[in-house]
Amino acid sequence: MLINDDLEKLIENLPFFLQTYLNQHTDKDQLIEIVLDLGRRPEVRFLNRFEYLAQKAISWQDIDYTTKRVSKFSNENRAGIERTLHRISCMRNRQFLIIGLTCRVGRAIFGTISAVRDLLESEQSILILGKPGVGKTTIIREIARVLADEMEKRVIIIDTSNEIAGESDIAHSGIGRARRMQVAETELQHQVMIEAVENHMPEVIIIDEIGTELEVLAARTIAEKGVQLVGTTHGNCLQNLIKNPPLADLIGGIQYVTLSDDEAKRRGTQKSILERKAYPAFEIIIEINEQNSWTIHENVKHSIDLFLRESFQISQVRQFSLHEKFNIKTIKLQNYSNSLIKSSSYLNNLTPFSNKNWTFMNQPQKRKLLTIQSSNLIIYPYSLSNNLLKEVFFKMGFNFMLTNEIKKANVIIGLHKHLRKNLKLKNLAKQNKIPVYSIRQVSIYQITKLIQSICF
């Protein structure tokens, strides 16, 4: 993973005696917050601990020094630093004077969503659940970049608190080509969500912290217009969402239903039961349990129905490390009660014929894929960069050869929109019995999935 935190731009806006200490700190790369409270010693907070920065207590002059070097505080008592993702929040006394500052370090982490990359390619709406501070905003920032840059979607971010793309009028580079709409007042977020759809023709809308009934209604309206949604909200798990009345409509809403005597007897339940009211606005839910362990509900409708029948089971847990090695633990539901847990590597756990973004072009009637020994792989690339293919194969540790002569190749790989127009190439491949594979988009991830499927 690649981390861009612009930490020096935050440190240089602090009082001088704090700058010296922080610049020399061995763990400054793991810093989460800096807390400055009037009359108290300054603190730095890490993930599981805190430290005092100095013996000297914070004075009015120290508070004033910092507030004059950041942007103007909003009605929500938040400010930022130009062209960074850092957030400065203030506390005020009864006279509205600032007496405390919480300086949260903002980081753009590239590669943080590797474990759920296949979910993005499914083009379904995704809701991310997690308590404050687990990194939901960092995750959707990276999702915005991947969708806009690598999947070439039209992405618009509704950035109410300016945490996703930074305080500056120029959006932070961490969101890639995605566009950002700022919200003047928090209460207007739902209006800006609808405005984005009506005025700017997005394929994907990204919303941080859906929290009110009006925002929930706007999200449902957007989903019904066929726009993919990626949003976050507070909560530890799916059960919390079901039991939260303002947010329950995100997953279809819950209602009491009275059954007839015969139906209740047939189901073996009471006459009054809970059922889902409508189709969920979000088809996939990701629970951020820990920074390196996420629970996935790939079929939210099914998960909710099972929970309401008191037969709820976790569907999938994905665990990963900073080295991008991760496992998936899948629980398959059988008759709503029995479950089977399987663990495997991420790529091997993907279903070969569902939501795949590559095609076996010259023999579509065959369900069994051709496999080639990786040591004998000779590729004819069509409309693909040789350097891109080399990067993928070197990372996977495969031996391979690239050739410009079709007859010498034992596999042809190219971009779908170009391959489908070249009948001469496909006929030549058929004559020489060379399999032709196409990918929908040029990305390292899709090429990796394809090579994993055709090689052994």
UniProtKB/TrEMBL annotation:
<protein>
    <recommendedName>
        <fullName>AAA+ ATPase domain-containing protein</fullName>
    </recommendedName>
</protein>
<dbReference type="InterPro" id="IPR058670">
    <property type="entry name" value="PTPase_dom"/>
</dbReference>
<dbReference type="InterPro" id="IPR003593">
    <property type="entry name" value="AAA+_ATPase"/>
</dbReference>
<feature type="domain" description="AAA+ ATPase">
    <location>
        <begin position="122"/>
        <end position="261"/>
    </location>
</feature>
<dbReference type="Pfam" id="PF19568">
    <property type="entry name" value="Spore_III_AA"/>
</dbReference>
<keyword id="KW-0150">Chloroplast</keyword>
<dbReference type="GO" id="GO:0005524">
    <property type="term" value="F:ATP binding"/>
</dbReference>
<keyword id="KW-0934">Plastid</keyword>
<dbReference type="InterPro" id="IPR027417">
    <property type="entry name" value="P-loop_NTPase"/>
</dbReference>
<keyword id="KW-0547">Nucleotide-binding</keyword>
<keyword id="KW-0067">ATP-binding</keyword>
<dbReference type="Pfam" id="PF25516">
    <property type="entry name" value="PTPase"/>
</dbReference>
<dbReference type="InterPro" id="IPR045735">
    <property type="entry name" value="Spore_III_AA_AAA+_ATPase"/>
</dbReference>
